[in-house]
Design a protein that fits this description.
Chain lengths: 545, 360
């Protein structure tokens, strides 16, 4: 026993040593991977209207259940959304047309979920204009069932973030859609037309300030392939005066019911606390996630949540505009939060407009790190010759395991330093090798696919959950994983980041541990499941008992 | 740099007055026709069209016919002012400014101030403008005239400084401040450094440089550079509470809570009525669960500055975290009220743009 422990310690030390010298080296492999199409999104040197600034998201999901996550990239006007099939070995094939996903219009966000529980993940794409629900037909093609599902909208809306969420844990995925502004190019003022159409003295596209507010939407899944708009009766429509963008779902007060956070631009962000019975109360201000620590509303863009400090609670990260700090809200344990951005070692990057964001354990040390991608909304900013640019690099924060992060962007490989006007970002281990890749949507460019050049030092496990009593995608399932003497927490989510969708599989870095001591799953149905002594370094599929 | 158009002729100013007369025209033309009213109306119409010589003739005749017609008298004053006959114009304009109503006194007041400025009496012009502002506090034209007056004064003083003392550190300091307003922080910092090179002991220079560095970035290097500048300021200006406050903020950003608390406390020792320092220290007390201390400090900050949103927010959070939910909700309501946009023309402008609850 003593001998085994000594070996274990020695191994741990070797890994610790390796970890201390190992540095992430992210490369952009998009071109080699076959992601060469350009995704248009308005002007590249000037933008007339706000709709050119907010697109678009990306999704990583395994549409054909072959075990390899596929890619979906949303396009602005002048292009089409594209689905890329994962062929293995970091190569992707454009299957947009054969999948029936050719599109047009101002695509904004995307979220995934098996709304009809048939075992194949469906797709919802938001637009300035009409949203589209694509039903996955046996992993072979997608059928646009928007009208059939009663999701046709009665007027042009600026839909942005979305998430499938089972609001009553009844086993059927409902649908939340955030709305940004009421926008009509025929009546919206042109750049420079009023005080809200200037940036640092430059005439730029107007808004969101000065443009009319809209309200968010919640659709109940009727279980027969249709949805009903329950925005009013659920309380989701009640808050007025918010420019909604990204959507994050999660059980923030540990009551077993999913809550909904909406990052809002230039206005207080929203936190809809699930009251049960299909009712929500908006409580962001008092819970401490509406404003910054000085009581000011920031320009919230992207959002993610993780137990970054091992407290057993889901905290919230939000990316914001330039001249603002990013925001980290630490969950106190009761669904109330403290803004701890500076205390956590963040807040130094105030020249970036942040968008897609995600906690992910890039070095598999068991502590979630954080990536956010950036890019300004005004290409015109280049005229100012200042340190704020339309195309910007990403920011990578390393989790120091003491509630602090260190900005390691400058020393993490060329892909982090590449400049793009990035928007959506999604995270997944696309080749099942234990290292997480990142797909990024860049305005008017091909997307980026960030991949580590060398394998991270720690062990890992990916969990693929399959609901039976719960919704099939297991959205809302909470996993507590014990390995190497510490507990990690994660939740399966639809939506998130910036208008994007991460792979449903939960990735855990295990550090030096080559086994998982225990996995505890709280399924949305309320069922609890425990697994013990699982081998590391593999994808583990768990079906709800 | 100098606005040479503000002076003898100021044609744009009177064109604007003509415009004001046009938009206020319905009121004038609907007046009951009195004896000489047609002359008056013709005179006012000529003024609106910029035909000042015709206006002068008509309005003079109209006032002869009826010396008590306020429209005729004020518009005669406006016309005389437009023709640079300020001496003749001033009695009518001064009289017109004190009339009841809106349009006539506003135009008369603005023209009177312009005449005083034209006559070289800047002090009197400023007093008149302030008086007009007191009477019409939400009037865009009045506020514009006041802003223009200040801008001219700023331009004149700046021009004089650049002409007469080009080698002074103040030239660089002012250039830096202008760059700062334009958010060109790199250039601002460079100008502050030049000012410091010329006057290393100049009070406020290191402080301003530190602030410009922080405006540029909150990265670790920027924090450290800014800290150096504030430390330098402290050696020159040892009892400056704002410098202590900035040092506290930097320490806080660097995660040094105790050091931050010491700076904030020192700032308060130097300036006990420093609301921002009270709020900053109270937030640290809240984090340390010293809620009663935090609440007392925040209440004091609010007493000093009732509309301080940061103080109300921190108080709401302190109440929440100490379990006083009713008080927290009351603070939330206060905060909601403070964050509502103020009523006024700008808000109305937004409303016109359509900030209305959606119908659906």
């Amino acid at each position: 026993m003593l001998r085994i422990s000594a070996v274990g310690l020695a191994l741990a030390c070797i890994l610790c040593g390796a970890n201390s010298i190992w540095k992430p080296d992210f490369r952009n492999i998009a071109k080699e991977a076959g992601l060469t199409a350009i995704f248009p999104n308005g002007g590249d040197t000037a933008k007339q209207f706000i709709v050119e600034t907010t697109g678009s998201g990306v999704a990583i999901f395994d549409y054909d259940n072959d075990g390899l996550p596929d890619l979906f990239v949303v396009s602005g006007d002048g292009g089409t959304n594209r689905l890329y099939h994962n062929e293995g070995h970091d190569h992707f094939r454009d299957v947009t047309d054969q999948a029936g996903l050719h599109s047009s219009g101002w695509g904004q966000g995307v979220c995934a979920g098996d709304y009809d529980n048939d075992g194949f993940t469906d797709l919802f794409v938001t637009y300035w204009g009409q949203n589209h629900l694509y039903r996955n037909i046996a992993g072979k093609r997608f059928e646009d069932v928007t009208a059939k599902a009663h999701l046709t909208q009665d007027r042009t809306r600026y839909n942005t973030g979305c998430a499938f969420v089972d609001i009553d844990n009844g086993g059927r995925l409902d649908l939340f859609v955030s709305n940004y502004v009421k926008f009509d190019p025929a009546t919206t003022p042109k750049p420079g037309a009023n005080p809200y159409c200037y940036y640092r003295g430059l005439p730029v596209n107007c808004g969101p300030r000065g443009l009319p507010f809209d309200r968010n939407l919640l659709y109940r899944n009727n279980g027969d392939g249709t949805f009903s708009d329950i925005s009013e009766q659920s309380g989701v429509a009640k808050p007025f005066g918010h420019y909604g963008l990204s959507v994050l779902t999660g059980d923030f007060n540990n009551d077993g019911l999913p809550d909904i956070y909406v990052a809002c631009d230039q206005t207080p962000s929203l936190l809809y606390m699930n009251q049960g019975g299909g009712k929500f109360e908006e409580e962001a201000l008092l819970r401490g996630v509406a404003l910054d620590a000085n009581g000011r509303a920031l320009s919230g863009m992207g959002v993610d949540s993780a137990d970054y400090d091992g407290s057993g609670q889901f905290s919230i990260f939000r990316s914001n505009f330039s001249d603002e700090m990013e925001t980290l809200y630490r969950n106190r344990g009761d669904g109330n939060f403290d803004e701890v951005t500076l205390a956590a070692g963040m807040g130094g990057n105030t020249r970036f407009v942040g968008w897609g964001a995600g906690f992910f354990d890039y070095d598999n040390d068991g502590w979630p790190d954080l990536l956010l991608v950036n890019g300004h909304v005004f290409p015109e900013v280049e005229k100012l010759k200042i340190d704020i640019h339309y195309k910007e690099r990403a920011i990578l924060y390393h989790n120091l395991r003491n509630s602090h992060f260190k900005d390691v962007s400058e020393d993490s490989g060329p892909a982090i330093l590449e400049r793009h006007s990035a928007r959506g970002a999604a995270f997944a281990d696309i080749d099942n090798d234990g290292a997480v890749e990142v797909l990024v949507n860049n305005q008017n460019e091909p997307p980026s696919l960030l991949k580590l050049a060398t394998s991270p030092p720690g062990h890992w496990v990916d969990l693929k959950l399959e609901g039976t009593h719960s919704n099939r995608s297991a959205i809302g399932a909470r996993v507590k994983l014990l390995a190497g003497g510490r507990a990690q927490l994660a939740e399966v989510r639809s939506g998130g980041s910036y208008l994007s969708q991460n792979d449903f599989r939960l990735h855990f870095g295990l550090g030096a541990s080559d086994t998982v001591d225990a996995i505890e799953i709280r399924w949305p149905s309320g069922r609890q499941q425990k697994l013990a002594d699982q081998k590391a370094d593999r994808v583990l599929t768990v079906r709800e008992p | 740099m100098r606005d040479i158009n503000i002076g003898r002729r100021a044609p744009r100013f009177y064109a604007r007055l003509r415009y004001l007369a046009v938009i206020a025209g319905a009121g004038f033309l609907s007046m009951c026709p009195l004896y000489g009213a047609s002359l008056r109306d013709e005179g006012i119409a000529a003024f609106r069209d910029g035909r000042y010589s015709v206006a002068l003739e008509k309005l003079k005749s109209a006032t002869k016919d009826n010396a008590n017609d306020p429209d005729a008298r004020v518009f005669l004053g406006l016309t005389q002012a437009a023709l640079n006959e300020c001496k003749s114009a001033m009695p009518a304009l001064t009289w017109g400014f004190h009339l009841p109503g809106q349009d006539l006194p506003r135009m008369a007041g603005l023209a009177a101030a312009k005449c005083e400025q034209f006559s070289g009496n800047e002090t009197k012009a400023f007093e008149t403008l302030r008086e007009v502002e007191r009477r019409f506090p939400n009037d865009a034209d009045v506020l514009y005239a006041l802003a223009k007056f200040h801008m001219r004064a700023f331009n004149d003083a700046t021009f004089a400084m650049f002409q007469r003392t080009p080698a002074s550190y103040r030239v660089h300091q002012l250039s830096a401040e202008i760059f700062e307003v334009q958010a060109r922080y790199d250039e601002a910092a460079a100008e502050y450094r030049r000012a410091i090179a010329l006057n290393p002991k100049g009070p406020g220079l290191h402080y301003d440089l530190g602030r410009a560095l922080l405006m540029q970035s909150h990265g670790s290097e920027a924090l450290e550079s800014a800290r150096g500048e504030f430390e330098a300021e402290r050696t020159i200006n040892p009892e400056d509470s704002a410098t202590e406050f900035q040092l506290g903020q930097i320490a806080q950003a660097q995660g040094k809570r105790e050091e931050a608390a010491r700076h904030f406390q020192r700032a308060l020792n130097l300036s006990p009525d420093f609301p921002e320092a009270l709020v900053a220290l109270a937030k640290l007390d809240s984090q340390a669960k010293r809620y009663s201390v935090a609440v007392a400090a925040l209440q004091r900050a609010i007493a000093l500055q009732p509309s301080n949103e940061a103080a109300h927010y921190a108080l709401m959070m302190a109440y929440r975290d100490s379990g006083q939910m009713e008080k927290a909700r009351a603070e939330q309501q206060t905060l909601d009220g403070l964050q509502r946009p103020p009523e006024g023309e700008f808000t109305n402008f937004l409303k016109k743009l359509g900030e209305k609850p959606p119908e659906q």
